[in-house]
Design a protein that fits this description.
Structural class: alpha/beta
Order of helices and strands: HHEHEHEEHEEEEEHEEHHEEEHHHEH
Helix content: 25-40%
Bound molecules: pyridoxal-5'-phosphate
Largest sheet: 7 strands, mixed
Shape: globular
Number of strands: 15
Strand order of the largest sheet: 1-9-8-5-4-2-3
Length: 364
């Protein structure tokens, strides 16, 4: 089976973990510090703070942005649930804005209509590894004095106008979950250029501690362990290699699948570098997605659906006043997306298997 995701774990990762085990010091320590230093350098920002998940990264960034009880945060209805849950954890309200049908990212032309005097921040998501419309986002945020928290969990290494994700918003949030472009099992990173925000995040990830046994505010235990940090350091060294493999595989699929009726291939908007966390096609309404995926599976191709439902239909979100019909683009795309394997272990021969399986499944 050609799986939709498959982490690359090699000798370097094994050796790095062993060194931590032999040091006897497994909690947050020198490996995490090394990760933070190399991550900040890679993204071109002043600070990178490691935490134990992408969800924690978003929670930390929202906290440092000053989001709290009664505030509103604008975001997309088409993402992983972890984009939205941290807004709720802080007692704030997610205000959803429909997406663009070509990029799957938040439709910037609809954001201003959603801004109120309670709006504090925007969380754009670089979905599937493609950066959002950052020029427009920055203009809107500056005009209305809003913070931008970039959910770049799927987009390490992607660029807008030559600027890397993590450096595009006021905060960048990353995930190192096992299926992400680089990973350590579970982990996350927040980036920022603000010294004050970095200090707030350091405290928030460690029980709200400001100095030894002094607690300035409520905080959590969101620290990353050095075992995870050690893997992440080695993975970050390989990010360009992994990205090149993903882009190579995506380009191969683009060529091989071009011209097939009833499927729409991924589009890249101008000025950006897409890192293909997912290579996502859209099926024509006449194709039943479950059957299509089952046929691919029979041929050894593990396709995925990211995501089968938009976020506003889940009970803890719909109870805020959302209903089916509110975000027609997100709803339509959610019913038709299929993601194909492009991870670094997918070979040129695998691409041929995927291509012929799709041609058969479309024509059946
Ligand atoms: C993976 C992911 C997250 C959350 O990351 P975890 O590390 O699983 O907590 C948030 N947003 C998006 C878009 C993601 O893909």
């Amino acid at each position: 089976m050609i799986n939709i995701a498959s982490p690359v774990i090699e000798e370097e990762e094994r050796r790095a973990v062993n060194e931590v085990i032999e040091s006897g010091m497994l909690a947050q320590g020198p490996k995490v510090a090394e990760l933070e230093e190399s991550w900040a350098k890679y993204c071109g920002v002043k600070h990178a703070l490691a935490v134990n998940s992408g969800t924690a990264a978003i929670h930390c960034a929202l906290y440092a942005a000053g989001v709290g009880e009664g505030d509103e945060v604008i975001t997309t209805p088409y993402s992983f649930i972890a984009t939205i849950n941290p807004i709720l954890m802080l007692g704030a309200r997610p205000v959803l804005v429909d997406i663009d049908e070509e990029t799957f990212n938040i439709d910037v032309s609809k954001i201003e209509a959603a801004i109120t005097d309670k709006t504090k921040a925007i969380i754009p998501v670089d979905l599937y590894g493609q950066p959002c419309d950052w020029k427009e986002l920055r203009e809107i945020a500056d005009k209305h004095e809003l913070k931008i928290i970039e959910d770049a969990c799927q987009a390490i290494g992607a660029e807008y106008d030559g600027v890397k994700t993590g450096a595009l918003g006021d905060f960048g949030c990353f995930s190192l979950y096992a299926t992400k472009n680089i990973m350590c099992g579970e982990g996350g990173v927040v980036t920022t250029n603000s010294d004050d925000a970095a200090a707030a995040i350091r405290s928030f990830r460690q029980h709200g501690m400001t100095s030894s046994y002094e607690y300035a505010d409520l905080g959590y235990n969101y620290r990353m362990s050095d075992l995870h940090g050690a893997i992440a350091v080695e993975q970050l060294k390989k990010v360009e290699d992994f990205t090149n493999r993903r882009q190579h595989n995506a380009n191969m699929l683009n060529e091989a699948l071009a011209g097939i009726e009833k499927i729409v291939l991924p589009k890249i908007a101008s000025n950006r570098n897409h890192v293909y966390h997912q290579y996502t096609i859209l099926l024509d309404k006449s194709i039943r997605r479950d059957d299509f995926i089952a046929k691919l599976r029979e041929k050894g191709v593990g396709a995925g659906v990211y995501y089968p439902k938009p976020l506003h239909v889940y009970p803890h979100i719909s109870k805020l006043g959302y209903k089916v019909g509110d975000f027609p683009v997100a709803e339509d795309l959610a019913a038709r997306v299929v993601s194909l394997p492009v991870h670094p272990k997918v070979t040129d021969a695998d691409i041929e298997v995927i291509t012929s399986a799709i041609k058969e499944a479309v024509n059946d």
